[in-house]
Amino acid sequence: MANIFSGGGRELDLSNGGTEAFVEVLMLAVSDLASEAWDFRFAALLILQDQNVMGRGAVGFHLEEVDWGADESERARSKDFVLRATALAASGHRWSELGYHPPHVHDYLDRFRIMVEHFTPPAGTGPRHDFPGPDGAAMASCTRHRVLSGLPYWDGCFLCNQPR
Ligand SMILES: [Zn+2]
């Protein structure tokens, strides 16, 4: 079983453990960078990648399904946010809080960065079923870990929910 993250003809095919590490280091970065409404929707998308909730090997997303924004400047800003979060994650930001060492995550983040860099967010705002809307944004922040959480769907952040 694997989880596929794709966009613009590129693909990042991750094992279940690899997915967990990839999503968690991104979540730590996004939690500290998020400032605009869109950022909290992207955080909610990351929360939906929790395999304990969605099923092992049943997550992943396509960049084509993300609602990048209504106009070109919004779309550019959204893409820039994802790239900044990816770069911050790749710097090792808050990895010490994970409780484990994510061995291959540098490679995953690098491949994801290249995928996003080469991706042109499509114009048009059709319904995007897999990207959380403003009502589903992860606006809550766990006070214990300072990590965004998807309340009211889940109690606490991914660190609260870790069985460690
Ligand atoms: Zn927490």
Provide tags for this entry.
164 residues, mainly alpha, two-stranded antiparallel ribbon, two-stranded antiparallel sheet, 4 strands, 40% helix, 9% strand, binds zinc ion
Strand element count: 4
Classify the beta-strand content into a percent band.
5-15%
List the ligand species.
Answer: zinc ion
Biggest sheet, strands in spatial order? 1-2
The best one-word shape is: globular
What's this model, at a glance?
This protein has helices spanning 16-33, 37-47, 51-54, 72-90, 105-118; strands at residues 3-7, 10-14, 140-141, 148-149. By secondary structure, the protein is mostly helical. A two-stranded antiparallel ribbon has the order 1-2. A two-stranded antiparallel sheet has the order 3-4.
Can you put this structure into words, describing what you see?
This protein is mainly α and 164 residues long. The chain contains five helices and four strands; from the N terminus they run ββαααααββ. The chain has one domain (3-149). The chain has a two-stranded antiparallel sheet with strand order 1-2. Helix 1 runs antiparallel to helix 2 (37-47), helix 1 (16-33) crosses helix 4 (72-90) and helix 4 packs antiparallel against helix 5. The longest helix is centred in the middle third of the chain and has 19 residues, at 72-90. The protein is globular and about 40 Å long. The site of zinc ion has 8 residues, from loops.
